[in-house]
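=== Structure Prediction Worksheet ===
Name of assembly: unnamed complex
Input type: mixed (protein and possibly other molecules)
Chain count: two
Listed entries:
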Amino acid sequence: MSGHAGCRWNCAALSIHRASASYNIRMMQNQNPATFTAMLAKAQQQNQSMLCVGLDPEPTRFPGNFKNDPSKIFDFCAAIVDATADLAMAFKPQIAYFAAHRAEDQLERLMAHMRSVAPQVPVILDAKRGDIGSTAEQYAIEAFERYGADAVTLSPFMGFDSVSPYLKRHGKGAFLLCRTSNPGGDDFQNQRLASVDGQPLLYEHIARLAQGPWNLNGQLGLVVGATYPAEIERVRELAPTLPLLIPGVGAQGGDAAATVRAGLRAGGSIIVNSSRAILYASADQDFAVAARQEALKTRAILQAAATQ
Amino acid sequence: MSGHAGCRWNCAALSIHRASASYNIRMMQNQNPATFTAMLAKAQQQNQSMLCVGLDPEPTRFPGNFKNDPSKIFDFCAAIVDATADLAMAFKPQIAYFAAHRAEDQLERLMAHMRSVAPQVPVILDAKRGDIGSTAEQYAIEAFERYGADAVTLSPFMGFDSVSPYLKRHGKGAFLLCRTSNPGGDDFQNQRLASVDGQPLLYEHIARLAQGPWNLNGQLGLVVGATYPAEIERVRELAPTLPLLIPGVGAQGGDAAATVRAGLRAGGSIIVNSSRAILYASADQDFAVAARQEALKTRAILQAAATQ
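=== Predicted Assembly ===
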């Protein structure tokens, strides 16, 4: 498929094309009024999967002819989606990788493509927005209307009114950052709060709020890093029914298995994200085949751990 | 100026146009190698101002013929910039208001316009990004390379390594959310940390980190809401030399004066943001004149408070 620079359409045609893509997304949403939670359960069942395929396109790592060509972001990601549509519980495009390359139009096309080839797989837009109510309202329009996402990731730092505008979109999901496993995750999330009953750690407090008073319409989930299974277990204890989005799992059986044991419960699903191990499984033209192999392998490890 | 839909260029021409706008921004940056801090001091001096003009374009509130027309976001914001270029210490576009309307191209044009008509006024891109290092790197490219911003706002929730990629851009500024005055600002920022020496509140801890160990190259500032002057004073005590970006001041003399007294010190500047009071000072064709009057008034109140 040709990129922007090479195409022959004039701008008026491009605008119509864009408007039409957006319209199609909305139409498909109307035809599929399932909530994010229902879509998640259905995709898990149908694809026998707890695997989330993260879409973090880096042109410098693209294979073959796509290498270093940002106009191929859509083509690259669409090939990954096509190769994993029957293996994924969710897709998670990371918006920064599109924004850095002025590729919002390619993200719009990718969202429409995912809806078209994998209508049963929910899409989580990883944006980690966090702003006051009136601005959050704009970000909610971006995520849910412009891009047609089924769920977003959010930073809870500015408090409940920075989260509530997303909850007005009934049926949409919102994953709050809770405990991240980057080195800086300890800086604040792991601090003990003297002024809250029981002196929980900050991430424990967030888990409680998300399971309880903040979860007005059952739309909330939590982002919990995979590095420390004991912390996943603690979050699961405090938030027994919330979906947990767990990034940071490679194809190593040990980590993945420990993650599943720590996080999966009968009433509480886990969505285990893998991005680079799948996207860049091969640097050659066979990248989509290699991505499928890697996704198959990771899915199998996760499923095996669930039945142990 | 015609919007996207109406133009007659083909897409190849559009790509060239975009690439050229981006190139021009970079060229202008190279011609103006001043650091954000130096630009801020110069703008304050030259425009005799502590006023930041916030650009939060809402088409539903646009005046006259622009009303409800998202293709007029650039025209509206450019008129505000033209009317206040000699009155502002900084401009602060809020990216959510552009993203909700697929108006990234208009934001690119606005950034180039600000650089052209007000080269002495630094531009703070209000994006409140907060993500792990590799993703933060993409957001830094978006803010500093794509849009050519002089500074960004960031959420510190994910810790130091979510901030450090921005600090690699020497000379650029980064304002960390510290104490926000929205209702949810209390939820976490005002919690006392049992596990940090002296049991500071979370926002106090952030202020200390930003003044001290996190401020590797003197690029950090803090975002502190205007609602509670006592808290601005406390932040200033802990961060005596950091620039404070203070949103939430209307044209009321009392608030603005209290804000200046609480935050302004010989070695520590304040950047007092006003958005809607200026942008929507009139709903008619005279909106730019009315915006200028409002900016003049607010600037005067701030300057008067500084000399009391």
